[in-house]
Amino acid sequence: MANEAEETVRKLSTHKGVAGVIIVNGEGIPIKTTLDNHVSVQYAGLMGSLIDKAKSVVRDLDPTNELTFLRIRSKRTEIMVAPDKDFILIVVQNPVD
Amino acid sequence: METYSYIMKRRDFGKQPMFCEQGPELCDTILPNPVEQKAFILRNPVHQATQNTPNFSLHEISTERAKYNTTGINHAEGGWPKDVNIHDPEATQRYRRKVEKEEEYINCVNACSPGMEHYALQNNAIDMYQIYYSDLASLPPVEKNSMRTVNVYRDPMGGRPISSICWQPEGQMRFAVSYVDMNYYRNPQGSIFGLLWDAETPAEPLMNFMPPSILLDLQFNPKDSTMLAGGLVTGQVVLFDIRRGSQAVSACPPHVAHRDMVRNVLFINSKSGLEFFSGGVDGACKWWDARNMSEPTEEMIIDIAKYTFDVPSMANAYGISTMEYEFTIPTRFMVGTDNGFVINANRKGKTQLEKLPIQYPAHTGTVRSLERNPYFLKNFLTVGDWRLHLWSEDCHDSPVLSMPPTRHKITCATWSPTKCSLLLCTGADGVISAWDLLRSQCKPVLTMYLGDDPPVKVRIHEQGSLVAVGTQKGSIFMLELSASMTASERNEKNLMLAILERETKREKILEARLREIRLKQRQAEEGSPRHSLGVDDPSAGDRDLAEATQDYFNVVKKELAAM
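Output (structure tokens, whole complex):
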């Protein structure tokens, strides 16, 4: 089972354009990452609060609704965040132009 | 501070207090002072305010401020549990490995990654956020024509019909208006004053002009914006000077004046800039010099001559209803007559035939407006009974372009001085229509209903965007044209020229053909009594027609048979 998870993460990181994959736990510790430590820590810290805010926005607008995915598109990269109950999966991708 | 001490013995605690009656004790008496009393009087009545409401009291408290302080936390690493040493890489790895083995972690990864993969692949496939068509040139905006009334100038002396409007030259925003209100016997029914309006002040005119009798036409001198010439109902012409006041500066004596009313005056191109000519219902054109109004410098009778030895006579002259003069063609002018002809006249002709070489059969009634296109001097418009025609000087028999006849008579039309294909025309049903010959030749580009009051005169300002429309009841509407109707585009002139040339060519071809047919008919009549020669020519066309019809029916038959 753990191998499966490992495999999935590796496959994800080998897709075209993907710069890095980070999995952050509920306390903001990057558990699994393909990037450097300080970069991962930065992403983990910043994303955590953003995800909380986004979750509360969706919940406030419609209590039956919940956040499934968050995509932040910037000039150079796209940050895709999938929140889960306890963990956050972050993928940083460079869009192919 | 003084303290008051009250001593009570313990054994007296709880004892019932015994009260005793004590009478009032006089402390002090202050007698009234009569001297002071004299300074006061009894007040009667006394105003005493009472208010029967519950009493409220207002009390303010200020609590102690809670002090806030904003500081940042430098939280470099996420919430590691206490027992793990952050700086020890092995310990952190061990912790991480432990979390990876947890079931929740595995579930999370399995749940989130398919979606994540989908989006990553999607990003690779297309660029979702691109802005489409950013590199295409922006289209020119859709042309929107519009006209709106910006001001109305009402006749302060009662609603007299307007007979002429003239903008002050050199781009000023002033215009002179002459009003005509007369009965059948040419007697004025209202005031005979003409007015000078400022376009910015519709409330009242700047000044008025006091002619000796009814003023039919008032025109500014294009070279000198303070001088105006006017034509009177008595046949005289008068001069006004704005600086000299309302009275006419000079008038021509009645014995040299026209024999009937003067309908038009126009300034001509002369060295002194002070010469003008006038035309009237009597059929004569007289040229005047403003410095010497005692007699005209030249006269011409508008009597069409058929042969070179014809002597012009006033008895056969056509009454002039409108005149046209173009500054760049100094010796020629055009005259529209009461019986519908437009005559091209040459001042420098030696004989009557040379003086009035060409006439165009324009309308079945009075020619109301005659104006050359300021960009294409060979073409002019005429307005008469229900129709608006466009002519070219070369085609003498029929107009080059003709607008469809309207239900109501057309009272006035004018070209736009800035846009070469635009002309405005007013109809007696109260509608002003703008025709743009490049956009559509069968219907106006824009029509605007001004009111029941039929417009009788329209004049566009030099700069092309303001239009003064004078009506039957003496009101002048100032319209503003939208920018698309004021400015000419780059290739409009060429396109317009092409249109006019094409139409002129068509007319010329038709004219030539007609001439040929007429010639052949005449030859046939002169040559032999047989009619066959005459019949041949028209039948040539018929033969083509017959062939074409035959072909058509053959094709139709074939199609029907195939069905």
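Residues 35 and 47 of chain A are 15 Å apart (CA to CA).
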